[in-house]
Design brief:
globular; mainly alpha
Length: 476
């Protein structure tokens, strides 16, 4: 980085380092134990010994995070816990620098972007998710750098930046099942409307082909049309599980619902023995083994393909015929989405060590309240503000008949992604919706901060910031 950025970046790095040292001293650390039993992970023995085979035959999740875990286990078979800790801290540092670069691109003054970045990197949620072995933290890192690459692509017509953006967007699809092809397709269509078609298609061709290859493999091998076969089981929690047991039993007896609806979604394979035929063995460990070596259920077993399809069909029936139950569940999912992202059992042990700090930030920044089902009033206000700002921005483009500038398009990308994730997760799942919001708080904060500068008649790009952006050279 150039000299003009050395001081603020040094401050940010110092704050980041000090906060991580303090967190470690408080006893906060990453526990590698989830490797052995989390539903989303291929068991460690297969990751180490049959990595490529297991990834190819994984239908329950997109493959990228399990690829990351497998490479760590192969490279550090004994000290993998420390390697994962270092990797997640590195992701945190990269996300922090990426946020600073993004705020620079959007033209915020140096002091403002330095303070915002420093505060963001020491937030309780960042400290806790950085020490949780799950894919939300890597997803945040990829999303931040995708935004940086998008701005550079739009601002400088850089084919390299455009290719980087689409590659990172494809990586999100390979990383998190909430990001599906429809999300990327909408972005491609929007960019085709404001950039030369040849440039957009050139930059997106290979990433789109890689995404199409994943979908084609899943359809050819498993008959699924998404990157996760769990769609039916997830939707079942918002639909079938909301019916009373006696109601479900009567509907099954009447033939309206399948027998799987008598079983709680994500139950052990044996629970479905009376509902589906046992699948034939395929000689593939990740598909044939009903249990992992740890004794945890293997939800990538072949039986769950048919189970999930039956759940999906029944869930659609409930959506059509028991609309009140589905609406009530969606209402719960939305409330949970806007509740505290740190109020989660998986981070509870670490959260206890910074509980006063987390409570203060939750009460006075996010506005969490015991009323309104612990919804964050400040969070809702920020989301509504960002959405309203985007609508006004689009209306302005239409009335002036002009294309959005690079910063405006980047903000629209962030808000669109936040809205997409919020809607999809609230309509299709109920259980841990608040963790799904973790990756969106930074994009919303970026949008709100940029909007405030513009609405208070502060130029979006100051002369000083223009020079700063130029100083960033290849990074901006």
């Amino acid at each position: 980085m150039m000299r003009s950025h050395r001081a603020p970046v040094a401050v940010i790095v110092a704050v980041f380092a000090a906060s991580r040292i303090a967190a470690y001293a408080a006893g906060i650390h990453l526990d590698p134990d989830p490797l052995t039993w989390y539903w989303q992970y291929i068991e460690p023995a297969l990751l180490k010994e049959r990595l490529l085979e297991s990834l190819f035959y994984q239908h329950s999740q997109p493959p990228l995070f399990n690829l990351f875990l497998g490479l760590i286990l192969k490279a550090f078979p004994v000290s993998y816990g420390m390697a994962l800790q270092v990797a997640f801290i590195a992701m945190g540092m990269l996300s922090t620098i990426g946020l600073y670069v993004l705020l620079t691109q959007l033209g915020l003054p140096r002091v403002a972007r330095t303070v915002i970045t420093a505060l963001a990197c020491v937030s309780p949620a960042m400290l806790l998710y950085e020490n949780w072995l799950f894919y939300e933290y890597p997803t945040l890192t990829v999303l931040i750098f995708a935004s940086v690459a998008l701005h550079r692509f739009l601002d400088r017509n850089s084919v390299a930046a455009g290719t980087a953006f689409f590659s990172l967007a494809a990586a999100l699809i390979y990383l998190r099942s909430v990001f599906q092809f429809v999300w990327l397709l909408a972005i491609v269509v929007a960019l085709l409307a404001i950039k030369p078609r040849r440039v957009v298609l050139t930059c997106s061709a290979i990433p789109l082909a890689l995404v199409a290859l994943l979908y084609a493999k899943n359809f050819a091998v498993f008959g699924t049309t998404t990157t996760s076969s769990w769609l039916g089981m997830n939707i079942a929690r918002v639909t079938i599980s909301q019916l009373e047991p006696y109601d479900r039993a009567e509907l099954v007896s009447a033939g309206s619902l399948h027998k799987v609806s008598l079983v709680r979604p994500f139950s052990e394979a044996a629970a479905y023995s009376n509902a589906v035929e046992p699948p034939a063995r395929r000689g593939i460990a990740v598909l044939d083994r009903p249990m992992k070596e740890s004794g945890a259920e293997n939800f990538n077993a072949t039986v769950y393909l048919e189970v999930s399809r039956d759940y999906r069909a029944d869930a659609l029936w409930v959506m059509r015929n028991r609309r009140d139950a589905y609406r009530a569940a969606v209402d719960q999912a939305v409330a949970l989405f806007f509740s505290s992202s740190t109020d989660l059992d998986f981070v509870a042990a670490n959260r206890q060590k910074i509980e006063p700090y987390d409570r203060i930030v939750g009460d006075y920044v996010y506005g969490y309240t015991p009323h309104w089902r612990k919804i964050g009033i400040g969070v809702i206000a920020a989301y509504l503000f960002a959405l309203g700002y985007s609508v006004v921005m689009v209306a302005n483009f239409v009335s002036q008949r002009r294309a959005p500038r690079a910063g405006e398009s980047t903000i629209l990308f962030l808000v669109f992604t936040c809205a997409y994730v919020a809607v999809v997760t609230s309509l299709t799942d109920l259980g841990e919706n608040q963790r799904m919001r973790f990756i969106l708080d930074w994009p919303i904060a970026v949008t709100v901060t940029s909007a405030v500068y513009q609405l208070f008649n502060l130029p979006l790009v100051h002369r000083r910031s223009v020079r700063d952006i130029r100083d960033l050279g290849g990074i901006s």
